[in-house]
Structure formats: C-alpha cells, structure tokens
C-alpha cells in the first residue's frame, strides 16, 4: 500500500476491518498493493493461505488485514490482554522487530498489546511481557521455542499463525522449530504462510502445518518485478572491486546495499570502501546485536550511504530509500538473487540491481538469471570519464539551484567578488566539490564483442555446441565410472552446458566423458576408467565448481572403485549437519541436517 499525500485520506477498502481502515487512512494510504488486495477477498476469510508475494510488496500490512477479523471478530478493539490470540513467526530479529513496529500503528486503534520474542534480546524482559499478557506475539523460531519449552509462552488460545518469509526460515534450518511451535497451537487455528517462492520444501511444509490451504499468487510466475532494473556488469577478473567502487560512484542513490558471500569478504570490502572515502558500514553474522543495530541506524539516518552485508545478515532488513543493490559476488541460486534484489524496488519505489560478473562467470550469471526468469541489460562498468562527467553535472546543478545571497551574506559576497573575481571563486568551488568525492578507478575496456556475447569464450562454446556430443541417448562406456552432478531437469540441465562444466571441474576432455543421463534433480554421467582417479582428485581442489553445485561418485561405480574414499554419502549429499546461523539464538542449531539449496 502506498501513501497518498495529495488528497484527503479515505478508507482504502471497505473489506478491511474498520479499525485498520481508519489507521491506514490516517496515514494517507489510499492504494492497495496486489498482496494486500488479495487479503481483502471474503472467500479467504476463514481459510488457511499459502501466499507467494515478492519481498517488499507490503506483506506485513497484507497479513495484518488478513488476520484482523480472525483476532477481533466483530469487536472494534481487544479486551484485556491474556494468552496471545495471534502469532507471527519471522526468520530474523530485524524482520520480527520491523513487523512489530508496522503492526503497532496498523492496529493502534484496537488497543492491541504486542510482545516480541527474538534472539539476542533480554529473555527475562520478554518473559515479563508475556506474563503481563499480549494479544499478539511476534518472534523468531528459536526464541519462541525456548519460551514454549520453559512454559513462558502458552499458545492454547491462538486463533491465527503467520509464517513470514517461510522460504528463508527453511534456508536457515528452522523447519523442526516451526513444526514444534505449530504443534503447540490449537489444530483449529488459521495458518497463513507467506513465501517469495513456493518450491518443494515450502509445499511440504504447507501440507504438514496447514489444512486445505488456498494457494494465492499475487504476481504471475513469469513476470519480472517492474520496479527493479537488472544490470549485468561484465568486468575483468582482477578488476571486480574497481567496478564495485565505480558503480557506487556512478549513481545518485541515497543508499546502497552490497552483497558478499562471506564474512571475510564483507570485512575486506568495507575496509576498502572506507579507505576510499565512502561512508560505509557492514553487516555479518559475527557482529553483536548492538553493532548490527548501530549499522542499520547509520543507514537510516543518513550517516552511512553504503552497507556491505552477507546474505544471512541482511535477511529481513528494510532500509528506507534503498534504490541500489550490488551483487559483489554472484548469487549461487535464483532464490538468493530474488531475496537480495528484493531489498530494493519496495512498495512502488524504483530500484536498480547490478550483478558484478567477471568475464569467465558470464555463463553462470545468465543461468541464475534464467532460472529466476529475469532479464538483465549487459553493460560495461562505468569509467573515469563517465563518473567525472556526473560529478560536474552535480556541481553545476548545485550552483544553479543555490539561493540568492541574503542580507547577512550580501556584503561578504561582494567582497569575495571584488578581491578574487568570479573565475577564481568558481575554480575554488569546483576543486572543493571534486575533492569531496572519491576518485574513480581506472578499468580496462572490454571489447565490444564481449558485451554483445560474441567474445572468445562464447565462440568456444558455440564450436563445442556444434560439435557432436554424447547426448543422454548414448550407450554407456565399457568400464566407465559413474558420477552424479546436482543439476537435473528441474534446474534445466542440458548437455550443452553440463559437458563443459564437467570437463572444467575435473580436468578432462570431452572424449573422456561418456553417457549423460539427466534425471529430475540430478544428472549421472560416465568418466572413462583411466581418467576417473584423476577426475575425482581434481574435484577436491578449491574453486573447481560454482558454489552450490556438487559432483560426487554415483551409487553404482563402473569396473573399478575409486581408490580414495569419497567425502560424500552414497546419495551424493555431504555428510555434514547444517547449523542454523547464530542470528536467532546465538548458539548452534540442534536441528537435523536440511536438504541443500537447489543450485543455480
């Protein structure tokens, strides 16, 4: 829902509970977003809902609209608070607190009392708030489970439960916690599950915790977010950081969010940006809650302009006026790309999403974009001349828009003109303004063919595609050794891109690869017996595969087994157990290992 500041506020929709409609009108909100409009449908009033909606689409107000009739009935306001009537579960502290703040004013006229239960906060204060009574509880899975286990949170009166950003909670390993929490709530409750994507894990969770859920899609599956412009910025491998710096300089955005894969990368890039004169802060899982809060507040009040973050640390945050997202490291799967990009283009605001892609990762970038059903403009990184031209335009605009000198300034302005003259004053102003901006980096120009997709790498791939290849229909090799790769039909696996990937990952040639059998979630392929040992050894080298993709010996091996014991189970999955990040409870998760995320 977007605010309307040009007209007298009026209730936006008669189907909204009157108490909420009045609060929204008072805030100047007059237009419902698609997800909010869907929640006013009378047919959904008592139903469990499985809702797919983009990040930043106004979901919080949407599920507030949806659960208000369930919690309030025909009443205009709540009775005295006792056991909670509603429960909202969010993946992170920041998102839970953000939801609580939003619902505080949406339900303000109902005299609601909301309690928050999130990791990293004083658990004793939360327990006291629950003892005093609450109509609605907002929390993270780990902390909610702790309160239930200790007897501090009674869900016996719950009428409605909302799982916000359920796909992220699954990614963070909270499925066991969610099932435990919902198992403590009455079976006749309403359960609303909101997720940016409805993949297999979400569908399985919905079937386990919901009853005859109604599927609600608020955007067509193939429709690209109209408020986000995607750019694929090709750079040379050793100039990635230079391109990030120039991208941040070549924008008028008030704030930008830069994503990296690891904490170390966040620390390194933040230090680099600060040294270059940027007002930059960082967010990573190792930071204390007070440090995270200070960093976010710096972005909100304008003291910092750039936030460098890991995926986990940035989940659930909402930064005002964020109109630029930069992927310093290429997302490993479409879900990560969509969640990262969803930090901008929120609630009708326009945003730009830039993927910084080294030339050799261009194919991987196109695959991730393709899986996410997104199109991006391919461009080169901005150079020194472009950025300096932007600086000069800003200086001209600042000078042209300056007010005439007032009475207190007039005498001194006249003295300046008399002693220095207009040209020297203008030159001094120009130098001062230029010195206040970081100096752009010099980048090597890319050939036009590379930007058009016709560079040497593309030409090699084209020749490989035209050459005869061993398609899935081919017979098996004699004495071949079978391996599996974690890409299948669901990931749009195709021999044309699988074959080069297998060869590069294992240091073999096309002649060493036999039959390729593509299944739903994985692909089996053969390596000639005399190359299998070296292939397996080569796979263990760091960087042999894109992150999120795995190659392992298959369950059935050819003529002879591999000499070294593989670091995989027979089903091709790594044996390590997943641990939920400490963002929620500050300690390792005790959950069972979850399925790895579907690779890009």
Descriptive labels:
disordered C terminus, 600 residues, 38% helix, seven-stranded parallel β-sheet, Alpha-Beta Plaits, 20 strands
Label the overall shape.
Answer: flat
Rg from alpha-carbon coordinates:
28 Å
**Biggest sheet character:** 7 strands, parallel
Question: Which structural class is indicated by helix and strand composition?
Answer: alpha/beta
Describe the structure.
By secondary structure, the protein is of the alpha/beta class. The chain has three domains: 2-217, Rossmann fold (3-Layer(aba) Sandwich); 228-383, P-loop containing nucleotide triphosphate hydrolases (Rossmann fold); 468-553, RRM (RNA recognition motif) domain (Alpha-Beta Plaits, 2-Layer Sandwich), CATH 3.30.70.330. The chain is built from 21 helices and 20 strands. Helix 6 (141-149) crosses helix 8 (175-183). It is flat and about 80 Å long.
């Amino acid at each position: 829902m977007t605010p309307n500041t040009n007209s007298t506020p009026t209730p936006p929709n008669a189907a909204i509970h009157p108490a909420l409609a009045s609060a929204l009108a008072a805030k100047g909100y007059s237009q419902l977003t698609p997800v909010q409009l869907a929640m006013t449908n009378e047919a959904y009033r008592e139903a469990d809902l499985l809702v797919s909606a983009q990040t930043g689409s106004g979901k919080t107000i949407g599920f507030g609209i949806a659960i208000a009739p369930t919690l309030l009935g025909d009443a205009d306001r709540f009775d005295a608070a006792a056991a909670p009537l509603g429960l909202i579960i969010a993946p992170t502290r920041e998102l839970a607190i953000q939801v609580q703040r939003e619902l505080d004013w949406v339900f303000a006229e109902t005299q609601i009392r909301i309690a928050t239960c999130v990791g990293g906060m004083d658990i004793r204060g939360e327990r006291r708030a629950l003892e005093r009574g609450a109509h609605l509880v907002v929390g993270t899975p780990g902390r909610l489970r702790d309160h239930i286990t200790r007897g501090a949170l009674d869900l016996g009166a719950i009428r409605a439960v909302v799982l916000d950003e359920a796909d992220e909670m699954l990614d963070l390993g909270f499925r066991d916690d969610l099932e435990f929490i919902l198992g403590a709530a009455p079976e006749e409750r309403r359960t609303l599950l909101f997720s940016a994507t409805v993949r297999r894990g979400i569908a399985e969770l919905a079937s386990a915790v919901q009853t005859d859920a109604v599927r609600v899609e608020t955007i067509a599956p193939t429709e690209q977010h109209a408020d986000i412009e995607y750019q694929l910025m090709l750079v040379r491998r050793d100039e990635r950081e230079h391109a990030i710096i120039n991208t941040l300089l070549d924008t008028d955005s008030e704030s930008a969010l830069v994503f990296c894969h690891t904490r170390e990368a966040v620390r390194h890039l933040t230090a680099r940006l600060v040294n270059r004169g940027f007002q930059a802060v960082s967010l990573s899982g190792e930071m204390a809650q007070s440090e995270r809060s200070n960093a976010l507040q710096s972005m909100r009040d304008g003291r910092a302009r750039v936030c460098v973050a890991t995926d986990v640390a940035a989940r659930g945050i909402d930064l005002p006026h964020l109109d630029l997202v930069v992927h310093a490291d290429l997302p490993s799967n479409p879900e990560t790309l969509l969640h990262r990009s969803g930090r901008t283009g929120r609630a009708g605001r326009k945003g730009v999403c830039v993927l910084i892609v080294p030339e050799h990762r261009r194919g991987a970038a196109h695959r991730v974009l393709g899986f996410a059903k997104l199109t991006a403009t391919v461009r080169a990184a901005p150079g020194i001349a472009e950025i300096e031209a932007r600086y000069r335009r800003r200086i001209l605009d600042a000078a042209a828009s300056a007010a005439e000198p007032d009475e207190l300034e007039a005498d001194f302005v006249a003295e300046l003109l008399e002693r220095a003259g207009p040209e020297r004053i203008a030159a001094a102003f120009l130098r001062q303004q230029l010195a206040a901006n970081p100096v752009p980096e010099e980048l090597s120009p890319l050939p036009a063919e590379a930007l058009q997709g016709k560079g040497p790498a593309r030409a090699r791939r084209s020749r490989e595609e035209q050459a005869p290849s061993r398609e899935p229909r081919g017979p098996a090799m004699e004495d071949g050794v079978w391996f599996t790769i974690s890409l299948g039909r669901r990931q749009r696996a195709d021999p044309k891109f699988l074959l080069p990937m297998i060869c590069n990952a294992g240091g073999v040639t096309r002649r060493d690869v036999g039959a390729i059998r593509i299944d739903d979630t994985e692909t089996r392929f053969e390596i000639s017996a005399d190359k299998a040992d070296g292939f397996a050894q080569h796979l263990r080298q760091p960087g042999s595969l894109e992150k999120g993709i795995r190659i392992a010996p298959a369950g059935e091996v050819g003529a002879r087994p591999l000499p070294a014991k593989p670091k995989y189970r027979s089903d091709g999955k790594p044996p390590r157990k997943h641990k939920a990040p400490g963002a929620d409870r500050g300690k390792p998760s005790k959950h069972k290992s979850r399925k790895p995320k579907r690779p890009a």
